[in-house]
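1st attempt posting a full record on here, be nice pls
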Amino acid sequence: MDWKSFMEGSKNLSTFALAIRAVILYIALIIATRLMGHRQVGILSGHNYLVAAGIVSLAAIRMLNPESSLTSGIVIVFVYAFVNIFLSYLDIKWPRAIDRKPTILMKDGIMLRQNMLDCHVTLDNLLGQLRLKGAHNLSEINSIVLEPYGKISVIKKPEALPLTRKQMNLPSKMAALPAILIYDGKIDEENLNSMGLDHKWLMAKLREKGISSPQNIFLAMLESDGTVYISI
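the predicted structure (as tokens):
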């Protein structure tokens, strides 16, 4: 293989060479994304979005065009990543100077039309976001805030909030995450031991469902309320 043509690009590259270039570039994208951290994936501020769009566009060009330079593509990917890390650091130190601030779209139950116009948020957009938040009636909402990363936060009026166990004078309930007990016929020993459970307890739960062996189970989970969910 001609390594210079492979790295710098050539119209005579074979399909196999193009595939290897795509794999290398994809691995570089994964490494760059890991370097940028969770913020890039979960919280997209303005500069995060531009970096993500730029990297995706760059990767697409390098993957499709055999004459493009793989070396320069990898360099640009990591330059983008480090610029993004630097801007995210500045965003933490001086958030008002780097990123946008939250915008109030509703206050005390009153829609702020000018703020909606300034943020280019249409009523249909807003109502759609509210439905995703489980807030279907505007009369139940006290405040709506458009966050810098494009999502909305909703604060309902006190009379529209659901009752809590504390308000009902009920004893507190320990919160716990669901845990996998069996996956694809194999018992997750680590999860079982971490919860202080053993095989005897697990087999008893399986017999209650009419199941004799863990090998017959695709997924078994212990849910937060103590229920054992089983899917064969």
